[in-house]
Each structure stands twice: as C-alpha cells, then as structure tokens.
C-alpha cells in the first residue's frame, strides 16, 4: 500500500449512477484524508466541461455510459489535459473494455469490487506515475502490448472506437437480425437500436447495414 500524501489529491468522479458516485464520495471522505473529491458528473458532455474547468489530479472514470463512456471522455480531454490522470473504475472486467480505455489513455483499470482503502491506494499510485490494474486484468494488457509469442493481436483502432453495446448491436445486425429483433434480444427499444446503428455508421464512416455487415465479418464479430 502506498503512503498518504502531504497534499490532498484532487479527484473527480465520472459515473452515470448517482448513488454509486455518492457511495464513492462518502467512502473517500470518511476514510481517506489525503484524497478529496472536487467534482462529479454523470454524462460525457457534463464530465468534459467540468473536468476542463476543475482540472483535477485524478479522474475516476466509468467505462460504460449512455452517451459514449470513458473512452469518449479520454478522446476529448487527454490531448489537452496531459497532467490529468485517468483511472477507469468499472463493473466490467471484459478484456475489450480494459484495452479500449487503456489505448485511449487511462493509466489504470480497477473494478467496482474494490474497497475504499484500495481505491485510495490506486489513486495515489496513478498520481505518482504507476499503472494500476485489478489483479486479473493486468494479463489482458500485458498480452495486447507484448510482442512475445502467443500474445493477443494488436487491437483494431476503428473497432476500439465502438462501445460494448454498439458492438452487441453490430454483431446482431451482421447476423441478419431486424431492428425489432435486436431490440428484443438486448432488452432495449427500437429507437435505441437505431441510435446505436447511426453511431456505428458515423464512427466507421460507412453508408448502410450491408457495408456494416461486411465490416463486422472482416473483424470476426459475427
């Protein structure tokens, strides 16, 4: 465990669940005197605007949010705020989620099973320059960024732009599902399916579902 710092570390929380943000704030305020929460946001747009204004030391960043998630926050802010450190804090332990945010510029990735004291230690460590991962997640990163035999192949930059839900929609679309069938399969509305498809078309710069199906097949998503 790292030692508490003399100067409080200013932390900003980004998560679309207000109750979770409140819990993290309370846990850090109660037990960790050298870490102070200076702001919070529940959406990508709100987070980008507030972080630009507050300029915290460390951002605790959720991976999945309705309007783009952690990778989108990183895409917009990382180039202009190089001194701000981003630590992903997510319920997901999927390799694709870990790799996407690390490629986007996060300094570490921990899951929401972490305790308050462990989270504070992770914040201190990334602030001091360490890379921090929950134990089983480190292997994903080592495999992808290693050139040793048997390592996972490098990620596709275009594929990394898609959120997990966009990939789910794309996978079903490429299998020939209609929008209504995709909505039923994923327990979302047809309108939401249309929104995800539009987002995927924009990100991939393709024109229609047939081109998307071919694109998905080329990347073995089907």
TrEMBL record:
The keyword Amino-acid biosynthesis appears for this protein: no
Keyword Cytoplasm: no
Signal peptide: none
Molecular function terms, GO-annotated: DNA binding
Gene Ontology biological process terms from the UniProt entry: phosphorelay signal transduction system; regulation of DNA-templated transcription
Record PTM 4-aspartylphosphate, positions in chain: 62
Domain HTH luxR-type as annotated: residue spans: 155-220
Keywords: DNA-binding, Phosphoprotein
Identification of the protein by name: LuxR family two component transcriptional regulator
């Amino acid at each position: 465990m790292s030692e508490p710092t003399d100067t409080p570390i200013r932390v900003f929380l980004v998560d679309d669940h207000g109750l979770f943000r409140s819990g993290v704030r309370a846990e850090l305020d109660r037990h960790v005197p050298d870490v102070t929460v200076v702001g919070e946001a529940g959406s990508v747009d709100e987070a980008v605007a507030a972080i630009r204004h507050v300029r915290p030391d460390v951002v605790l960043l959720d991976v999945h949010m309705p309007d783009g998630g952690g990778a989108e926050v990183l895409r917009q802010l990382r180039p202009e705020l190089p001194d701000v450190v981003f630590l992903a804090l997510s319920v997901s332990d999927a390799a694709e989620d870990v790799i996407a945010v690390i490629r986007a510029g996060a300094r570490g990735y921990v899951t929401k099973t972490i305790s308050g004291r462990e989270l504070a230690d992770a914040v201190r460590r990334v602030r001091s320059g360490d890379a921090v991962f929950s134990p089983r997640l480190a292997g994903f990163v080592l495999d992808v960024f290693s050139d040793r035999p048997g390592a996972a192949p490098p990620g596709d930059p275009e594929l990394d732009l898609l959120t997990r839900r966009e990939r789910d929609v794309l996978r079903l679309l490429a299998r020939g599902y209609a929008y209504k069938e995709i909505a039923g399969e994923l327990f979302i509305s047809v309108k939401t399916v249309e929104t995800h498809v539009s987002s995927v078309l924009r990100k991939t710069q393709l024109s229609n579902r047939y081109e998307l199906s071919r694109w998905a097949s080329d990347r073995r998503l089907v």
